[in-house]
Design a protein that fits this description.
- The complex is a heterodimer of chains A (225) and B (121).
- Chain A is built from 10 helices and 4 strands; from the N terminus they run H-E-H-E-H-E-E-H-H-H-H-H-H-H.
- Chain A has helices spanning 3-13, 36-46, 60-67, 93-106, 114-141, 146-155, 159-168, 177-185, 187-202, 208-223; strands at 21-25, 51-55, 74-79, 85-90.
- In chain A, helix 4 (93-106) runs antiparallel to helix 10 and helix 5 crosses helix 9 (187-202).
- Chain B has one domain: Four Helix Bundle (Hemerythrin (Met), subunit A) (Up-down Bundle).
- Helix content of chain B is 68%, strand content 0%.
- Classes of the chains: A mainly alpha (225), B mainly alpha (121).
- The A-B interface holds A 57-60, 63, 76, 78-81, 84, 86, 88, 90, 93, 97, 100, 103-104, 107, 109-111, 113-114, 117-118, 121-122, 125, 128-129, 132, 153-154, 159, 200-203 and B 7, 10, 13-16, 18-29, 32-33, 35-36, 39, 89-97, 99-101, 104.
């Protein structure tokens, strides 16, 4: 059990403790990746009898909670200039990017043209998050060291390399990614993959709703690899 | 207003104006728009200098650009701003989206770089 939790939770967990809640600040920071799933399980156990509030800047904890299907409420806090703080409910990282893309596409208050410039990049982020999740689940599942997996993911500098890792378990096979996507999920998915990559730089001037739909379908497929 | 200037103005607007919506999404949206502004500026530069360079990857362009500009600070500024914005445009599980402060720092830099790029003939 991680040290910070080992120290704090037993006292707060005593049956006669007046505190029915626990607040933990950034428990994942500097933690060995292998321990994050264990931490998520400890939190699941604690949350049976206590309200547990955890602050973190690290995606691994929400990802672990999602992967282990541990019920929780995730809130994202962002701070604008002038300390204007915004809080919103979020879902897992992959689907959040697509929810964001849909929200931007629908937002009438934005200047004309902004959505066409921003939506493809958000879709690409969703596809990248899906690939990372697939690679992590597969490699950790077969016993690879967490640190080696994270190093490989950090070294994957392009969306295509990440997709090659997700599809073939080999980042050097980027040249085969588009063909494989076309084969497995159809040409519409392959086109969406190309369009979100190019559109991240140049914008996309076709139908944004179809682009989001196809990219999200592709991300769901990649995530299950 | 050039396309690059308009993109940079949008990037600043979505970061600074909550009334535009984009709750929680604005840091990524602003980074995407800011990088596009810089890339548009680079495209314009290559159009004037050596149009076929636009077919090269951005990484290659940023290596080669030092052969085409006299101003060493401009080269370093371009590489730094592009790398920072690019990082914010990819998913990194252990990192937050950029802060308002970081974004404005990069945008000021892009603003200046666009002017200096347009002055390189």
């Amino acid at each position: 059990m991680p040290r910070a939790v080992a120290l704090s939770s037993p006292r707060a967990m005593l049956p006669d403790s007046p505190f029915r809640f626990i607040v933990i600040d950034d428990p994942v920071q500097a933690m060995d990746p292998a321990r994050v799933d264990g931490l998520a399980r400890v939190f699941a156990q604690i949350s049976g009898t206590r309200q547990l509030i955890v602050f973190t800047h690290d995606d691994r904890l929400p990802a672990a909670l999602h992967r282990l299907q541990i019920p929780h409420t995730a809130l994202q806090v962002t701070r604008r200039a002038g300390s204007i703080v915004e809080v919103r409910r979020t879902v897992d990282p992959v689907n959040q990017y697509f929810l964001d893309a849909r929200a931007v596409e629908k937002d009438d208050s934005l200047p004309d043209g902004v959505a066409a410039r921003v939506v493809p990049g958000l879709c690409r982020l969703g596809i990248e998050a899906a690939c990372m999740e697939a690679v992590r689940r597969r490699r950790i599942g077969r016993g690879d060291a967490h640190q080696a997996v994270e190093r490989e993911l950090a070294g994957a500098k392009s969306t295509t390399t990440l997709a090659a890792l997700a599809l073939f378990d080999d980042g050097s096979l980027g040249g085969k990614v588009l063909g494989e996507i076309n084969k497995r999920w159809g040409k519409a998915a392959g086109d969406a993959f190309q369009d979100v990559k190019a559109g991240t730089h140049k914008g996309f001037h076709g139908n944004l709703v179809s682009l989001i739909d196809e990219a999200q379908r592709l991300a769901a497929g990649l995530r299950e690899q | 207003m050039t396309t690059a200037e308009r993109l940079l103005a949008w990037a600043r607007a979505v970061a600074a104006h909550p009334e535009l919506g984009l709750q929680g999404t604005w840091p990524r949206a602003a980074a995407l728009l800011g990088r596009q502004a810089l890339e548009e500026g680079l495209d314009g530069f290559w159009m004037r200098q050596l149009p076929q360079m636009r077919m090269a990857t951005r990484a290659t362009q940023l290596v080669c650009v030092e052969r085409f500009v006299r101003d060493r600070d401009l080269v370093i500024g371009l590489r730094t701003a592009w790398a920072a914005l690019s990082r914010a445009c990819h998913h990194h599980p252990y990192e937050l989206a950029p802060t308002a402060h970081e974004l404005e720092h990069w945008f000021s830099s892009v603003d200046e770089l666009l002017v200096r790029l347009s002055e390189e003939v």
